[in-house]
Amino acid sequence: MTKRIILAFAAALASLTIFAQGPTGGVKGTVINRNGRQPVENARLILKQGAAEIATVSSAQDGSFLIPELEDGMYTLVIEAPEYLESQVQVTVNDGYVKNMFNISLTGIQRVTEVDDDSFAAFDMDDSGFNDNPTILFGSNDVFNNIAGYNFSSVRFRARGYNSESQEVYLAGVKMNDAITGYGPFSLWSGLNEAMRSKETVNGAEVSDVALGGYNGVTNVFGTAGQVRKGLRGSVLTNSSLYRLRLMASYATGPMDNGWAFATNVSARLGGNDWIDGVYYRSFAYYLAADKVFDDVHTLHFAIFGTPGERGAQMASTQEVYDLMYDNMYNANWGYQNGRVRNARVRKTHEPVAYVQWDFKPSDIFQGSATVLYRFGKNGYTALDWYNAQDPRPDYYRNLPSYFYNDNPDYKRNNQAKAIEAFKSWYNEVPDVVHMNWDRIYQVNNLSYVPNENGETKRSKYVQEERRTDQNDLNFSTSFKYRPQAWLTVTGGLNAKWNKTHYYKILADLLGGQYFVDVDNFADRDFASTPFMAANDLEYYLAHGGKSRILHVGDKYGYDYNAHVHNYGGWANGEFSFGNLGINVGAKLGYQRFWREGLTRKGLFPGKEFTDPVSGITVQPAKDSKGEVITSFGNSKKAHFLTYAAKLGVNFVIGGNMRVYGNVGYFNDAPTFNQVFLSPRTRNSMVDKLTTVKTFASDLNWQYSGNGINVRATAYYTTIKDQSKIMSAYDDVQNAFSNFALSGIDQRHVGMELGFKIPTYFIPNLSVQGVVAYGEAVYTSNPTMVQTLDNSASLVSYNGSEVMNVSFWKNHPVYPRDVYNNIPEGTGLNDYTSLKKHYVPSTPQTAVSLGLAWNYNYWFVDADVEYFDRAYLDMNPLYRTDYAVMGPDYKATPEEIEYMATQEKFAPAFLLNFSVGKSFYIQRKYQLGFSLNAKNILNNRDVKTGGYEQTRMVDNTEGKNRFYRFDSKYFYMPGFNYMLNVYFRF
Amino acid sequence: MKKFLFSIAALAALVSCQSLIEEWQPVNPRPYEEGKPFTPVNMDSEVNATIAQIKALYKNHGTPVEIIDNLIIKGEITTSDEDGNVYREIYIQDATGAICLKLGRSSSYDDYKVGQILYVKCRGLVVGEYGYKSGNYGGAGLLQLGLLGDGWQDYLDGITDTEPEYETSYIDLAPIINEHIFRGAILPQEQRVKPSYFTGAELTAMKDATQSPIVSMYTRLDGLTYGNSDNGKEIFCLFYPDPNLNHTKYESWNRVFLSSPNNRAKGADYTFGITTWSLTKNRFLTLAQSGVWDDVEIGDGSGVIGQAYTSFDNFGYEELYKDVIISHPNAQSVSHYFMYDGVEVQVRTSGYARFADVAIPEDVRNGSKKVDIVGILSRYQGSAQFTLLDVFYSGTTNSLIK
C-alpha cells in the first residue's frame, strides 16, 4: 500500500514535472519541390488550430523545419513559399510526440515573371486632365490574383474596377502610396525584382498583419536582406514590347552565423522595343540591404535602394492619326534630330528610399515591428514648352485632314483639296509632318533675334522643360501582433507620415537658343499691356524695375510651390477563433492635413497691393467670390480631415480544405491633395465644401485548397460616395488653361470573381486554370462642376451659372430611333425609352482566362486564351453638362444629348498567350534556366487599353445650334510580343 | 555552361542588329547635337513674274483667279505677327507693289522674318479679293494670294465643293506651304524696304483701283490728327452679343455697331468710351459692365443694349442684351479715325494685338499732338485702312505702343 502511495506520488510529481516543462509534442518535416524533390528553403509554415494561428516557422536551407511545444490535437499546417502554390496539410499530434511529416511537396507557380511596373508602358496623357495609373495585382498565394495579375496586365485590368489609389502598398510595414496622388509606388523599385520578390498580399477588405487596409487589398513588400534568395543570381532578359535588354544580378548571403545577412540587387534596362517608336529605357536600379539578428528578440533591417534612369513616354492620338499612319502604335512624341531619334517626353527619376526596421519578439505571443523610412530625390518629366509659337506636336488637330474637310457641312470644313494634301503627307509619312520636327524647332530658335541686357540675342521660342515633383517623405510606422490566448490574436499599429513635395520646373534644354524668359505665356498673351501680370516671379519683377528673369539651362521657372501632407493614424484588429469559426473586428482612426506653400509670387495672383514700376499703376490683389484675397505666395489655409474605418470579417473552415469567409467595411477617407487645390500651379485656392470619401465594401468568398486543387469564388458589393476630382486641360472655348473641379462623384461596384487551378488527373502534371471577373462598376450620381482659369480669379460662368450640373454623368437617355437614319427621333426630351448607364472606365468589366498548365521535371508550359469585354473610355465631364448638350442655341435635342453624353465602349478582344520554361541543374551546384513568354500570339492590334475624351468642342458650326466633340484619343495594346529571360544561379 | 554562353551570345547578336540601332539611339547618354541650321534658298534665276503682274491677273470683282502658269515671284517680307495686329497673313513687297499672302499659320514670324526674301511658286495659288463692295458707298477691296476659297471650282484638280464664301483661303497646311513658299536670305537692316509715303490724294485715288500698286505696301503717314472730317471723334467696332449664334448681316439682331450714325453730328464724340487702340477681352468686359454702351442700338434697331431683351425666337432665351454681352466678352478690333492730308484714315487694331490695351495718349485724343504711323496701307470697301505696326508722336522716334 505504502509502495503504491509512493509510486502514485512519484507519478504525480513526474507528471507535474512534465507539466512544468510544457507540452512536448511537435511537428517536423522537410519541404521539397514536387518536381525534382529539391528542398525548398525559406518556406513559411503556419500552424493553425481552427482559425487561430498557433505558430509560424521557416524552413531551413535543407528544407527542414520543426514546430515544437505543441499540445495534443488536430492542426492545419499551411505552407507558403515564393514561386510555389500555397499548400495545406492536416496533422494530428498525439501523446506528446513530435509528428514527423517527412516530405511535404510544393507545386511551383508557372508564372514566367512577376508583374511589376515594367509590365505597363508609360502612357503620356499630355495635358489632357486625365491620369494613367495602372493597378498591379500581386498574390502568389491567391489563385485569382496569380493568374489575373499576369494575364490581364496587358489590358490594364483593375480588380473589381477599383482605381489604383485604393490599392494599399506597403514596404517594410510603411504605406508607400503617393502622399499627393495616392498612386501606387511600384516605379520606386521597378527593376529590383529579386530584392522585392517577397511580399504578402490580402485581397479586398481583408486585414493584413501590417495594416487594417482599405477595400482593395494590401500588399506588403518585405524588402529585407534575409528575404532575398541566397546565392548569386544573374539574368538576361529581352522584352519586345518594352525594352530590348535587361541585365540583372543579385547576391545574398542569407542569414549567417554571426547574425548578419547581406543582399544586393542591381539591374539595367536598356533600349527600345518592337512596337512603339520613341519609347525607350535607360534605367538602372540598385539595392543594398543588411539584417542583423542580435538575439531571439531583436533584429534590425537596413536597406537603401533606388532606380535612377529615364524612359521615353508614349502619347495617345486620335483614331484618325492611327489610321493615317496605319499603325495604332504611332507615337507623336518623337522625331529625328540630325538623324537621331529624340523623344520630347521623357520621365527622369531617381528617388532613393532608405529605411531601418526593428523587429522585436520578446515572446512567442508578442511580436512587434517599427520602421523609419525616408524617400527623397527627384522625379522629372520633360515636355516641350513654347512662347508665342506654333504647337509643335505633329498630330495637332490643325495638321490633320479632318480639320479641312468633314462630310457633315455643319462643321464648316469643306476644303477637300487641303484635306487631300494633308492626307498625302501623312500617308507618305513625310518625316517633318508625322514626327516631331526638331530641325524646325532649332531653326526657329536660331533665327530668333531679341537682344537682352546680357548681350544674348537668341531668345528661344521652344524649350524643353522638366516638370519636377521632388518628394521628401518621412515615415514612421509600428505594428504589433499579440496572441494572449489561443483564441485571440490582436494586431495593431501606429503610423505617421510627413510629406513635403516640391513642385517646380526647370529649363532642361534651350534647343539652340541662348535664353528664355520667365513669363506666363497665357497671361502674356491676354494682358500684354500690363506685363506685371505675366510675371511668374513678381518679386523679381519688382526688384528689377519691371523685368522678368532671364533663364538658362537648369534655372527654375514657371511655378514653384510645396505641397505639405501630414498623416497620423492608428489601427487595431482583433481576431477571434472558436474552433473552425474565426471572426475579426478592426478599426482605424486617422487625422490628415495638407496645405500649399507658394514659393513665388505670381503677377496674376500677387495677394498684396503693389505699384508697377513700369506703368506706375498701383495694383490691388484679386479676391474670390467670398471677398478673400487670392494669393499665389505663402501658406494656404490648411485642409483638415478626420478619417476612420471599421471592418468585420468572418471566416469558417469546413473540413480543412474549404473555407467560407466574408468581409464588410466602412471607410471615411480624406481626398488627396491633388483633388483639393483648384490650380496649385497658380494659387492657394481650394475647392469649396471639402468632404471625405465614404466607402462601404463587402465581399463573400468561398475557397478550396487541397489535393492540388485551388479555387476561389468571390461576390462583392461596394459603394463609394462623395469623391472629387480636378482635371486641368486647355479649354478652347475659354482660350485658356483651365481647371475643372468635380464634386460628388458616386460609384457602385458589384460583381464576382472566380479563380481556379485543377489537375486534369488523366494527364499527369497537367492542370486546367482560369479566372473569370465579371462586374458592374458604374457611376451612380451626377456631380457638380466648377471651372477656373489659370489666368483669372473668377469662376467660369455658363448660361449665368458658375456651378454646372454634370447632368449626364451617371447615365443618359436613349430615345426612339428614326428607322431610316438610325438617329434619335425629335421627340420630347422626356420621351426616352431607357437610361444607358455610364461605367467606371479603363478596365474591362468582363475578363476571362482559360488555360492549361503543364509541369514536369523543371519544364513548364502554359497556354491561355483570354477574353475581355465591357471596357469603357474615360469620360470628359464637360460633354455631360447641360451647356454642352444644349449647344449655342440653348436648346437640347434628343440627338444632341445622345451624341454628347454617350460613353464609348471598347470592342471585345480575344488574346492567346503561351509560355514555356525550363531550368537545368549543372553539377548539382548551378542552375541555368530560361523562360519564354509569348503574348498576343494572334497579333491582335486593335485592342484599346485606354484613352480619354478631349476637353474640347467644335463650337463654330454652320448652324450654330449644336456642339461637336473633338475626337477621342486612345492607347492600344501591342501586337504579338514576347519576353525571353535567361537566368543563372549558384 | 555552354548553353548559357550560347544564349547570351545569341541575345547579344539579336540586340545589336542593324535594324535595331534606332532603338538604342536615345539610350546613348551623349547630348543631342544642334539641329540643322537654316539654309536660305536662292531662286533668283527662276523668278519670272512680279507682284504687280500677279495682281494684274485679277480682272473682275467676284471672280478669283487660279494661277495655272508656272509663275514665280520674289518679295521681301514687311510684316511680323509678333505684335498680333497682323494675324495668319504676311505681306510681301517688290519694286512693283505688295500683296497679302494668306499663309494661315499663327506665330509665323518665328519662321518668316521681316526683311527676309520669299520666293513664291504661284501655280495652284489663287488671287482673290477681300472686302469689295459695289456702289457709291463701296469700292475695291484687298487683293490676296492664297488657296482657292472653300467652295470654288478647282480647275487643277477638278474638285468641286459647295457654296463659296471667300475668294481665297489660307494656305494653312505645312506641306502646301512648303510646296509654294521658299525662304531666302534675311536682308541686313540697311537693305530692307523702307516705308513709302503717300499723299491724301493718292489714298483717295485708290478707292476703285483694284490693282492699285500702293495697296498692301509698307507705308508711313506723318502728322495725323485724331478725329474725323467733321471735327468729331470716331471709332468703328462691330461685335456680336452672343458670338456663339449666327451673326451675319441677316442676323442683325445679334450685331452691335459702335459707330457714328449716317447723319453724324459735327464735333460729336463717337468713341463710346474706348480710349485704347482696341479692346481686349478684359477691356471689353469692363466697358460693357460700366454702362457706357447702354444707349447703343442693337443692329436690328429693336432697342438699346441697356433696355432691350433678346427674343426667344432668335436667341433661344430671353435676357437683357447687356447681360448677354457681359456673359460673352471677347476681344474686338477697333478702328480709330484720324485725319491725314485732308483724308479720313481708319487706323485698325486687333483686339488680340499686344498693344490693344495701350491707351491712346490724351494729348493725341484731344488733338493737341499729332502722330506718325507705320504699317500696311490696306483697303476695305474702297476706304483706306491702316494696319498699325508702330506709332510715334509726330516727329519723334518714341513708340507709343512698344
Structure keywords:
heterodimer; A: 986 residues; mainly beta; 28-stranded antiparallel sheet; four-stranded antiparallel sheet; 54 strands; B: 402 residues; alpha+beta; nine-stranded mixed sheet; five-stranded mixed β-barrel; 17 strands; 15% helix; 25% strand
Describe this structure in words.
The complex is a heterodimer of chains A (986) and B (402). Chain A has 986 residues and is mainly beta. Chain A contains 10 helices and 54 strands. Chain A has a 28-stranded antiparallel sheet that branches. In chain A, a hairpin with a 2-residue loop joins strand 27 (462-485) and strand 28 (488-509). Chain A starts with a helix and ends with a strand. Mean pLDDT of chain A is 89; it is low at 7-20. Chain B is of the alpha+beta class and 402 residues long. In chain B, 15% of the residues lie in helices and 25% in strands. Chain B is built from 9 helices and 17 strands. Chain B has helices spanning 2-15, 21-24, 51-56, 174-180, 200-205, 281-290, 312-315, 321-327, 362-365; strands spanning 65-66, 72-77, 90-94, 97-101, 116-121, 126-130, 142-148, 168-169, 181-186, 218-226, 233-239, 256-258, 269-270, 334-340, 343-349, 371-380, 383-393. In chain B, the strands form 2 sheets. In chain B, strands 1, 2, 3, 4, 5, 6, 7, 8 and 9 form a 9-stranded mixed sheet that branches. Chain B has a 5-stranded mixed beta barrel with strand order 10-14-15-17-16. The longest helix of chain B is centred in the N-terminal third of the chain and has 14 residues, at 2-15. Chain B starts with a helix and ends in a 9-residue tail after the last strand. Residues 158-162 of chain B have low confidence and may be disordered. Chains A and B meet through strand 22, helix 4, helix 6, strand 49 and strand 54 of A and helix 1, helix 2 and helix 4 of B.
